[in-house]
Amino acid sequence: MAHTMDGKVALVTGGSSGLGLAIAKAFLAEGAKVVVTGRRAAEIESAAREIGAVAVAGDARDPATAERAVAACVERFGGLTTLVNNAGVIGNGTVEKTTREEWDRIVSISVDGTFETTRAAIPELRKAGARGASVLNFSSVAGNRPFGGLAAYCVAKAAVEMMTKCLALELAPDKIRVNAMAPGVIVTNLHTVTGAIADYPAFLERGKTTHPLGFVGAADDAANLALFLCGDAARWITGAIVPLDGGRALMSAR
Q1: pLDDT score of 125
Q2: Annotated catalytic residue, options 17, 111, 153, 207
Q3: Is 200 among the catalytic positions?
């Protein structure tokens, strides 16, 4: 039986846990070959072994990491057709109280990581030809609406959205599609490991009222959307910022 990702070779950044790991697992289940990257060597190698992917340890912002990850796709699987720029962090605090170090950390991981990995991947994505190539970036509901005390994250994700649109125009002649996913609150370890949310259970409970559908998302929701956007069924979609937020972006800022 055919799978939706047969013949595709995917590179997923931030693949040791959360949405990146869920997407990598879904791609593998649907026939893709997958390389995952992550900053913590032990964690990314363990995750890769568990799901049957290839691990490349390193920071997505580092051009050398991006080059090694693309090279792993070519050496192990013969090329690269699909890039998922998932690596990112969250942090909160007003502009007045956010240190320059924290600002740079939050913005650079999302923006510079997406830039460096995409730039390294483009030459191989061009070679995909009839197999079809695509890039999926990760924005957030915070990329298209303001949240007080979350400026660095909002700015980082807004930049990713604009980069997505610019790349979609630049790469359209090469038949490389570029889209972004903009999640609302999804239950992963992103908030807890960073300490960005002091009372996580209360935060999730509040999510029932801040998302019109009445519940927060799960990692599989993101994986399912990634399968569609990176698959052949979405062959005429590029430059799109696709919400995955239970209607969160429809509500007034609060």
Answers
A1: 98
A2: 153
A3: no
